[in-house]
């Protein structure tokens, strides 16, 4: 008996495990046609939450039989992990208004997403609203598993007071070429105006490259993604130039190599930061800021510079039973009226092709946001490829080793990472 | 006509053999057995199964294949340089953490055992870091060990460059020291309990024989608390094998350059962040086997054959 009981337990365990293969029933077409109450998750950013609650209230007032129940995304290390767990558990909500494009391939592979193309006119609606940029949000199978919603085109924010203290022009600083940027950074550091010229997070998380390497790579290459046609694009002369720029920043101590716990720009520990317009509301009156496009090696004119979008989109999850309502809610929440309210409440840029002409009053009253709207028309998204997160992690590891810590020549590190990324992008 | 009573008797004997002489014991232990089965045996068996299949987490209802891949996941784990680096990092951690934990805990327990005044205050003082959430105390260490921190201010020109937590050679030792400091209170308590069982007569006899303090400590105290030492070493080893929060928070996700990545941190990154639970499960199984081997070696050398 002493031996039989553990053996029975183990066998039962393995049998149960083998049985848990995720297969089961479910009528997708029935769910696609069904209307009724739905749940949605919203970001926990206070401005966005306020917009979301107002949007829900507005919908619920007109749809008594199809009420939305909204809540913040449950707390977790990252939204992507929480959503991934919810997909596996089968309790994801119908819609999440904070789905990161980088996570889409993984959620799709999990069978957690509904292709929006399954709804009449959906693909047309997306393209009409978003324009050519919508193409970046298509999955490799040609379908939309995400509704492009809003972007935060990242730019170089600078602190006008620190710049003035360092003897730099606070109104029109020369920051468009790598040389100009480095000269300004050196002046900030040597003058003691701030402990750091710029302070991107030097940590190893896969997404950190979106706020140092990737915006400059997008600008330098006129809009190339990290991966195209299943091939890594960063192991190129342009990628090397961007890496060398950042390597100089770290080697000269213009950016610290250790993590700052907090917002270094808001805390005035750094004179510059790479962030999107969401930060404007956060900085408030704490920092007198200005913003310029990210630099390029040759100093491209501002109107030609591309950057990383830092977009968050709306996705419909396969656990949803009333998908017809969910699709109507997507259309409602991304309508011109609701996009205008989002812009007004958060300063984030709805992913609309007609952004500036749709809200002329807003941009007249808030001229500071106009440059972000300009920039929003020239954004580059993360590639929508298999193993997306693993690809970013492989890149980050190589970047960290060669650029931040200088332990390996950039060319060698990038070449090794490119081989790995090619393998991952091919789906193996 | 006589068959029935015999059959009944046999059945009763079988039932008695199954439930033992005190069937109520089975009932009382059943909740714990269920708990072990659900919380320990099932996940362990499941992860073992995952490690031999091409597996990823899928939505209920999603039709996905999980083909048997034999030892492919294990091969991937064993040939991954990041895994080798993480085990190397843990090796450095254990070499620093385990002996230091055992030695400091014993020395401080002996000292605390002799203290007459403020005994409770001192015991609590050592115990507070253990019961404080890692996330909170990590903040204190970041304040101490970042480049502009207190330690570097005191060291001045002697401060390491790059600083402690971004220095590949120093990041793991700093984490090991942090964990020694954090866990010490618990291990001191274990030793304090063990010290209560050491007969005072032994020390008195040794004094009569002319033994000094060191001789008494080395010849009486250390052998007497050997079972506690074995427990301390095993628990410190398990802490090391499970290391996650400290490198994650102190060094920003396993930096610098992977020098503080632990196998569990890698399991989290590969299994949850990068959607490769099969790889993570194989790594977990290897980690469990590694800990079992080290625990067996520990039993052999520290606990002895008795």
TrEMBL record, chain A:
A cellular component term, taken from the record's GO annotations: ATP-binding cassette (ABC) transporter complex, substrate-binding subunit-containing
Q: Which InterPro entries match?
A: SBP
Coiled coil where? none
Signal peptide region: 1-17
Q: Which organism is it from?
A: Paractinoplanes abujensis
Question: What does the record list as GO biological process?
Answer: maltodextrin transmembrane transport; maltose transport
GO molecular function (one): maltose binding
Which Pfam family would be a valid example here?
SBP_bac_1
Q: Which domain of life is it from?
A: Bacteria
Record keywords, A-Z: Signal, Sugar transport, Transport
Protein name per UniProt: Multiple sugar transport system substrate-binding protein
Question: Which family does the UniProt entry place this protein in?
Answer: Belongs to the bacterial solute-binding protein 1 family.
User: PANTHER family of this UniProt entry?
Assistant: MALTOSE-BINDING PERIPLASMIC PROTEIN (PTHR30061), MALTOSE_MALTODEXTRIN-BINDING PERIPLASMIC PROTEIN (PTHR30061:SF50)
From TrEMBL, chain B:
Q: Which InterPro entries match?
A: MetI-like, MetI-like_sf, UgpAE/MalFG_permease
Q: How does it sit in the membrane?
A: Multi-pass membrane protein
Keyword Cell cycle listed: no
Keyword presence, Manganese = no
Set out the biological process GO terms recorded for this chain's protein. transmembrane transport
- Keywords linked to the UniProt accession: Cell membrane, Membrane, Sugar transport, Transmembrane, Transmembrane helix, Transport
One Pfam family from the UniProt entry? Answer: BPD_transp_1
Annotated coiled-coil positions are none
What residues form the membrane-spanning segments? 32-52, 90-112, 124-144, 170-193, 224-244, 279-297
* Gene3D superfamilies according to UniProt: MetI-like
Signal peptide per UniProt? none
Subcellular localization: Cell membrane
Q: Read off the SUPFAM superfamilies from this record.
A: MetI-like
Every ABC transmembrane type-1 domain range: 87-298
Gene Ontology CC: one annotated term? plasma membrane
Q: Which family does it belong to?
A: Belongs to the binding-protein-dependent transport system permease family.
- Which protein are we looking at? Multiple sugar transport system permease protein
Per the UniProt record, the source organism is Paractinoplanes abujensis
């Amino acid at each position: 008996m002493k031996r039989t009981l553990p053996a029975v337990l183990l066998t039962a365990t393995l049998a149960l495990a083998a049985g848990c293969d995720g297969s089961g029933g479910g009528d997708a077409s029935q769910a696609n046609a069904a209307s009724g109450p739905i749940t949605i998750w919203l970001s926990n950013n206070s401005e966005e939450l306020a917009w979301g609650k107002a949007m829900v209230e507005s919908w619920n007032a007109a749809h008594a039989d199809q009420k939305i129940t909204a809540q913040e995304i449950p707390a977790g290390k990252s939204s992507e992990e929480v959503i991934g767990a919810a997909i596996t558990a089968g309790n994801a909500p119908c819609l999440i208004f904070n789905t990161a494009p980088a996570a889409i391939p993984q959620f799709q592979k999990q069978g957690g997403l509904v292709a929006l193309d399954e709804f009449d006119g959906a693909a047309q609606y997306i393209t009409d609203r978003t324009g050519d940029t919508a193409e970046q949000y298509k999955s490799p199978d040609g379908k939309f598993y995400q509704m492009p919603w809003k972007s935060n085109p990242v730019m170089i924010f600078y602190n006008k007071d620190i710049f003035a203290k360092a003897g730099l022009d606070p109104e029109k600083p020369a920051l468009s070429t790598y040389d100009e940027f480095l000269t300004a950074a050196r002046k900030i550091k040597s003058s003691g105006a701030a402990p750091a010229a710029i302070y991107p997070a030097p940590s190893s998380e896969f997404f950190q490259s979106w706020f140092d390497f990737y915006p400059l790579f997008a600008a330098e290459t006129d809009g190339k993604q990290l991966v195209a046609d299943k091939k890594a694009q960063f192991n190129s002369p342009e990628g090397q130039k961007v890496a060398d720029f950042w390597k100089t920043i770290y080697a000269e101590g213009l950016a610290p190599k250790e993590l700052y716990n907090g917002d270094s720009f808001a805390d005035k520990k750094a004179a510059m930061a790479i962030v999107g317009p969401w930060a404007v509301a956060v900085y408030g009156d704490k920092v007198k800021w200005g913003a310029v496009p990210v630099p390029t090696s040759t100093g491209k004119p501002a109107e030609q510079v591309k950057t990383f979008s830092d977009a968050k989109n709306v996705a419909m999850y396969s656990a949803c039973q009333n998908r017809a309502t969910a699709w109507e809610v997507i259309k409602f929440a991304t309508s011109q009226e609701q996009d205008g309210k989002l812009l007004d409440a958060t300063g984030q840029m709805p992913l609309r092709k007609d952004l500036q002409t749709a809200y002329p009053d807003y941009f007249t009253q808030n001229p500071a946001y106009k440059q972000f709207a300009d920039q929003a028309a020239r954004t580059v998204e993360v590639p929508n490829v298999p193993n997306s997160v693993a690809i970013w992690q492989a890149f980050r590891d190589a970047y960290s080793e060669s650029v931040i810590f200088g332990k390996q020549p950039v060319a060698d590190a990038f070449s090794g990472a490119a081989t790995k990324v090619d393998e991952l992008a091919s789906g193996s | 006509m006589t068959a029935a009573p015999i059959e009944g008797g046999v059945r009763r004997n079988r039932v008695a053999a199954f439930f033992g002489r005190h069937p109520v014991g089975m009932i009382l232990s059943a909740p714990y057995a269920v708990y072990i089965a659900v919380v320990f045996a099932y996940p362990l068996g499941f992860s073992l199964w995952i490690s031999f299949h091409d597996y990823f987490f899928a939505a209920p209802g999603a039709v996905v294949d999980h083909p048997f891949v034999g030892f492919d996941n294990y091969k991937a784990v064993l040939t991954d340089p990041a895994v080798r680096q993480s085990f190397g990092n843990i090796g450095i951690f254990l070499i620093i953490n385990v002996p230091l934990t055992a030695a400091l805990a014993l020395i401080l327990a002996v000292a605390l055992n002799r203290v007459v005044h403020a005994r409770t205050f001192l015991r609590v003082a050592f115990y507070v870091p253990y019961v404080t959430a890692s996330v909170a105390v990590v903040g204190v260490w970041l304040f101490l060990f970042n480049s502009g921190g207190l330690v570097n201010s005191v060291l001045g020109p002697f401060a390491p460059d790059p600083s402690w937590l971004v220095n590949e050679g120093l990041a793991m030792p700093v984490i090991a020291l942090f964990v020694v400091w954090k866990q010490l209170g618990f291990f001191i308590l274990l030793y304090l309990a063990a010290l209560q069982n050491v007969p005072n007569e032994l020390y008195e006899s040794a004094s009569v024989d002319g033994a000094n303090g060191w001789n008494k400590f080395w010849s009486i105290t250390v052998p007497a608390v050997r079972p506690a030492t074995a427990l301390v070493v095993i628990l410190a080893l398990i802490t090391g094998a499970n290391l996650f929060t400290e490198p994650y928070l102190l060094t920003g996700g396993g930096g610098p350059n992977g020098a503080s990545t632990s196998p569990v941190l890698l399991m989290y990154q590969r299994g949850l962040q990068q959607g490769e639970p099969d790889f993570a499960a194989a790594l977990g199984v290897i980690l469990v086997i590694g800990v079992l081997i080290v625990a067996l070696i520990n039993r052999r050398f520290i606990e002895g054959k008795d």
